[in-house]
Amino acid sequence: MSASQPTIASGHPLDNPARASLTGPHAHFAERRGRVLRYPTDVAPWLALPDTPDADDWADAAALAGPGASLTLTALREPPPGDWEITFHAEGVQLVDAGLAAAPDPEAVRLGPADVPEMLALVERTRPGPFLPRTVELGTYLGIRREGALVAMAGERLHPTGYSEISGVCTDESARGQGFAGRLVLAVAHEIRERGDIPFLHASATNTNAIRLYESLGFRLRRRTSFLSAVVPQQLPVSGRTGGTGGGQVAALH
């Protein structure tokens, strides 16, 4: 992976992908307070702030989540206010399709709500990143089974206009070394391209094995980013924009 940082045009959908998703193809999932949006807590953990949040935005984020709640943020240009407890922070990379040999996989099966218990169990064993009871609603999920058991999967998460994120890529320890992850990534990428969108994904900057795999498949580095989880203060700040913690309304956009 090149150490140089690619130049990024201002306002690109992938610069703030959670917000671009919740104001675009995933608007039907969005819950809103002021200028802050989020997914339902059983769908995805992501909170979407404006590109340059002000004190009122942070107050609205706190009120939307509630005192003591944990929020997951990405693509932040500045940290939360000092009274928020940061519980997790990691550097990451954002990779985008630069010539994937995307194709259907003959063994891949489509996964849906009935498969969620198995998907959650696989995620618990492999820890690929956030996957919740309704995450499967965000897009296509494909899996590979062995003797009836789900041993590998990959699917879609964030969906900025024109793009779709490949996520939930995981393989059970019993089935590793057989190329399932790469095959499923290419199969999901095929589904994304068939809709006319461009596949992209995120990975931890320290997960060099995954980055090498994704680059070998045809992804390239677009930008470096960060992932952060923080706990809302018990004493909620007051937002002047929405009339304080009691005056603003939480609105579902669907």
From TrEMBL:
<feature type="region of interest" description="Disordered">
    <location>
        <begin position="1"/>
        <end position="22"/>
    </location>
</feature>
<protein>
    <submittedName>
        <fullName>GNAT family N-acetyltransferase</fullName>
        <ecNumber>2.3.1.-</ecNumber>
    </submittedName>
</protein>
<dbReference type="GO" id="GO:0016746">
    <property type="term" value="F:acyltransferase activity"/>
</dbReference>
<dbReference type="InterPro" id="IPR013653">
    <property type="entry name" value="GCN5-like_dom"/>
</dbReference>
<keyword id="KW-0808">Transferase</keyword>
<dbReference type="Pfam" id="PF08445">
    <property type="entry name" value="FR47"/>
</dbReference>
<feature type="domain" description="N-acetyltransferase">
    <location>
        <begin position="106"/>
        <end position="238"/>
    </location>
</feature>
<dbReference type="InterPro" id="IPR000182">
    <property type="entry name" value="GNAT_dom"/>
</dbReference>
<keyword id="KW-0012">Acyltransferase</keyword>
<dbReference type="InterPro" id="IPR016181">
    <property type="entry name" value="Acyl_CoA_acyltransferase"/>
</dbReference>
